[in-house]
Amino acid sequence: MAGFGSPVDDGSDVGTLEAWLLADPDATYLMRMEGEALLDTQVASGDYLLIERTRSVRAGDIVVAEIDGDYVVRFLRKNGRGEQYLEAANEMYPKLIPQESLNIEGKVIACIRKYEN
């Protein structure tokens, strides 16, 4: 049975939710997830993703990317030759290998699901 949560009292200095989540507020935005590409990570259509525009992305990060003219949210991966591609967390979606271009728009830093309107 779940009880009431208690404020953080472990000596950490969390402060506000905004301060905890946003390293660079001017480079951060919220977008609504559409589709089931990340379903196996428990990110569902309708969830909100907090995106940070950053150049420091690496293989394994969930990113918002423009690939061959389409925008998607996927895991960034690298093959054995160091070439980047995108992979869903749902076996129903194929790997996306760029034919012309792959531009990373930002990195997903949080998923927010609101249970009430």
UniProtKB/TrEMBL annotation:
It comes from the Bacteria. InterPro entries: LexA-like (IPR039418), LexA/Signal_pep-like_sf (IPR036286), LexA_repressor (IPR050077), Peptidase_S24_S26A/B/C (IPR015927). Coiled coil: none annotated. Residues 16-109 form the Peptidase S24/S26A/S26B/S26C domain. CDD domains: S24_LexA-like. This is Peptidase S24/S26A/S26B/S26C domain-containing protein. It comes from Candidatus Kaiserbacteria bacterium RIFCSPHIGHO2_02_FULL_49_34.
